[in-house]
Amino acid sequence: MSATVFKKTQQREAIMSFLKTRKDHPTAEVIYQNVRMEHPNISLGTVYRNLSMLAERGDILRLTYDDKFDHFDATTEPHCHFYCKTCHAVSDIDADIPSTFLKKAKGNFDGKIDGFSMFFYGICKECENNQMEA
């Protein structure tokens, strides 16, 4: 069975270009608001369809947290994320993941693991400071 080939589109390229500039893992709505500055005729539905297709192909990561909104990440290599339970911001954490982590997980699981993502939950510094001021 051959892999599905997707035609490159300006809109899809604009979505990917925007995502590659971000480390805060924006939602589809944020992506839409920014991409439409360059492509005013793009619809939110088109953004959602392209994000779903890119995630299914493995070109981007779809991250879902407690806020129930999908966040998107152009970095697909295994890495750590932080989710603020107060403001719902998502960001990368620069932390070394032991190279044996995935190997050990694969060895202890009867199935196929393609990759993983680590999530840390808590309160970001900005929300922590706001709570102290209140």
3D architecture notes:
The protein has one domain: Orthogonal Bundle (Arc Repressor Mutant, subunit A). The chain is built from five helices and five strands. It is flat, with a radius of gyration of 17 Å.
Beta-strand percentage range: 15-25%
Number of strands: 5
How many angstroms does the end-to-end distance come to? 59 Å
Unreliable segments (pLDDT under 50, ≥5 consecutive)? none
Indicate how many domains the architecture comprises: 1
* Largest sheet report: 3 strands, mixed
Strand order, sheet with most strands: 4-3-5
Radius of gyration: 17 Å
> Can you name the CATH architecture?
Orthogonal Bundle
Which fold name fills CATH's third level, the topology?
Arc Repressor Mutant, subunit A
Instruction: Identify the CATH homologous superfamily.
Output: Winged helix-like DNA-binding domain superfamily/Winged helix DNA-binding domain
What's the CATH class label? Answer: Mainly Alpha
> Average pLDDT value?
88
- Helix and strand composition category: alpha+beta
Shape designation: flat
Order of helices and strands: HHHEEEEHEH
Q: What is the helix tally?
A: 5
Fraction of residues in helix: 25-40%
